[in-house]
Amino acid sequence: MTQRKAVVALVGRPNVGKSTLFNRLIGARTAIVEDLPGTTRDRIYGEAEWSGVSFVVIDTGGLEAQKTAEYRATRAGVAPLARDSARYVTEITNQARIAVDEADVIVLVVDGKDGLTAADEDLAEFLQQTTKPVFVAVNKAESEQRQLDATEFWALGVGEPIAISAFHGIGVGDLLDVIAAELSDSLVGEEREEDVVAVALVGRPNVGKSSLLNTLIGRERAIVSEIAGTTRDPIDTEIIYHGQRVSLIDTAGIRRRGRVEPGIEKYSVLRSMRSIDRADVALLLVDGVEGVTAQDAHIAGHVLEAHKSVVVLVNKWDIVEKNTQTMVEYTRKVRADLQFLDYVPVLFVSALTKQRVQKVLPTALTVASERKHRISTAELNGVIQDAYHRSPPATKQQRPLRIYYATQASVEPPTFILFVNDPELAHFSYLRYLENQLRRHYPFVGTPIRIRLRARS
């Protein structure tokens, strides 16, 4: 059973500390923090948890008006670089609007040091158009005086100001409390029935997702229902394939009506990301002509982080120039570029000519079945102990890692617990070795497996 994670979007004008707050919320430094408008141009996402509530945090680029951007760029004093930042205003604004559209909760980050600005008021007016809950995080409120001054942001009319210091962590717990309370009260579960396999078609625009979907639902299969989602959700099409209910989640509808703004292709990442969270299996489409791009790798990275099963589909194979070795070489390159291992199936298809499309659903269902595979405790310990004795781990601090026994804790994905003398003695390369040994006996096709270490009490 899959549950969609709630989405919290951080929005605000440039340089108010969104990236610092993002890092504080997810407990990592994955965003580059630089004192220049437009630095955080790409939406960055990460997972957070507070009071038992898990959610996705989105760090958007700053929202600011064109004239404001040009003024700040001129004032920054590094004219060529700073003025380049102004060119990203349209892209940043669109990105933040998309993030707001996707979010369950919005956090408007303002600068307590600068105080209330006209740009903040413009952003608040923009946010008043949404029915989503909005919280105002007054950042850089380290001093008692700034915490008192934070009340002036009530004038924005979008929510209660919460004084914080993202850098020092002051007040962040209070902000997380109200976010978690809001998410707990909202219905964001979206649970599915157990007998339905959810398959998400993900990838950049124009790689052929819609064409593939149309081909899949048109090949002598009964369409059970076509469920139009909300403005935030892709369209799910439920079909029956050889007696198995399959929910096909299409993310091709990312483009909005009207003019396509610059940078629109980047906006598909978030929608694809949320579709992956809802899915059992992700069909990652790659353009066979263009090859793997940075955005493909971005989406693939989330597949890995979400521990979802995956099948890579290299589309438009009918127009790729090839010889007898092209497929082998292309497979090797795809896996290297996407950091996938040998357990991931790679199919070369053409949604246009239907070449090998008949293999897509059988492969997806095989992979979905592998997610539920269980290994008996006796068999598991036999494989692990054999691998351990055949290639013992290197000692660390003159202490060897000892593996006492193993058990499979869960499925979807298969998760194994190894009870050891000291988890700190295990190097990640040895865990990779154990994973490879497990896959020699139980391939877990297209499915990630997790190995967790626990000290024996």
TrEMBL record:
The keyword Disulfide bond does not apply. InterPro entries: AAA+_ATPase, G_ENGA, GTP-bd, GTPase_Der, KH_dom-like, KH_dom-like_a/b, P-loop_NTPase, Small_GTP-bd. It comes from the Bacteria. Residues 6-187, 197-372 form the EngA-type G domain. Transmembrane segments: none annotated. CDD domains: EngA1, EngA2. GO terms for molecular function: GTP binding; ribosome binding. SMART domains: AAA. Gene3D superfamilies: 3.30.300.20, P-loop containing nucleotide triphosphate hydrolases. GO terms for biological process: ribosome biogenesis. Keywords: GTP-binding, Nucleotide-binding, Repeat, Ribosome biogenesis. GTP 2 binds at residues 203-210, 250-254, 315-318. GTP 1 binds at residues 12-19, 59-63, 139-142. Belongs to the TRAFAC class TrmE-Era-EngA-EngB-Septin-like GTPase superfamily. EngA (Der) GTPase family. Associates with the 50S ribosomal subunit. GTPase that plays an essential role in the late steps of ribosome biogenesis. This is GTPase Der.
